[in-house]
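A reminder before we start the practical. When you read a complex entry, don't treat the lines as separate problems. The point of joint prediction is that each chain is placed relative to the others, so the output describes one connected object in space. Small molecules and nucleic acid strands, if listed, are placed in the same frame. In the example below there are two entries. Take a minute to note the order of the lines before looking further.
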Amino acid sequence: MAAAANEPGSDQWPLWEVFTQAKDGAPHEHAGSVHAPDPEIALQNARDVYARRGEAVSVWVVPSAAIVASSPEDRGPFFDPADDKPYRHPQFYKTPRGVRVE
Amino acid sequence: MARDRSSDGAATLNSKRHAKVSTPPPPTPDDSAPAPAPDARIDAGETIEPKDWMPERYRHQLVRMMSQHAHSEIVGMLPEGNWITRAPSLRRKLCLLAKVQDEAGHGLYIYCATETLGVARAELIDQLLSGKAKYSSIFNYPTLTWADIGCIGWFVDGAAIVNQTVLAKASYGPYARAMVRICKEENFHKRQGYEIVATLADGTPAQRAMVQDAVNRWWWPTLMMFGPSDVNSPNSADLLRWRVKRFSNDELRQRFVDLTVAQAQAVNLTLPDPKLRYNAETKHWEFGEIDWAEFKQVISGNGPCNRERLEARRAAHDQGAWVREAAAAFAEKQRRRSAAPAA
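Here is the predicted structure of the whole assembly.
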């Protein structure tokens, strides 16, 4: 994978977001970020900064510019399609008394 | 400036909105001006994330406080780094090396959290190297003996733990999360220091004298680390109102004293304060007057080691230039290769 270029007009290495998996089977979680000129150094920097004590069994690095995020101002309208669908929850349904269904 | 590269979530779907929230703060000319009404979300105890709306002054105060904190971690490596080659045993050397490496890591956690506020890393580094930025006054004192390394871990990291435990609940998400990470690692720092102190205190008369001397020199500067008394702290009110800080400088200082007195007694060392006495009513240790004139001198660049610290930092930065250039050239070469059509 090709690395992102430096900031225009700056010798600042690009920023990478770091995700670490704490143990086998666990999800990768955002840990922080590092600057690095290429993917390999980004991985090494991520290890040195975010896994000095065996906190991770796996690390992902992603160019920060590649992340697309929802915007906080849209929190309401963006997520409200889920607000009026109680039938997506098990409590919505009636079951005969005394029967174990879960 | 890398405004669009905030960690904790980069580009937004709505670029207009994003552009709005990632505009850098205009410089606030007067730090003592009254703060605007605090954001209701902060009042409600919610966490503020990088792209959320925030009062300009909140952002400004965060950048100021967090960058000073990051610089302190970085400069903090210097007084201890001086002793890595002179550690008295391989065990001590390994421990100190790991501790100093942690401090670098802590600086990086906080720099990356500060960048989420729309400030470029390069700009922060420039501010430190040019002498424009402040960092903790404590690191402008010299480390004269091995016992000083013990005292730094015990006192300075002990004080940092008191501060940072509270900051782990700060209203700004990236800062709070960096603090959680730091707090997990900081206890090792304190214990390695206290172990050094306890070993020397239990040693020969010369070792005892050496560690008592270090305690005498580090105690008062450590109390100053918590910052000016609340009556004279221009930024405290803002930071408390916005739940960046949750306790005042004086409250945290008191908490540190209360914790540390018993630890000094346990190793038969005397804290250099004739006014130190236990108040059974308040259940706190009362202590003497801090020399704020000294604090002001050190903060404004006239401490014993200010110049030396910055020179060492600049030299390290300059000497690393070829590594940065080589890595950038290599990355550029890879990019050109992967862009070239297959032969």
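Discuss with your neighbour: The longest strand of chain B covers residues 277-279. What might explain this?
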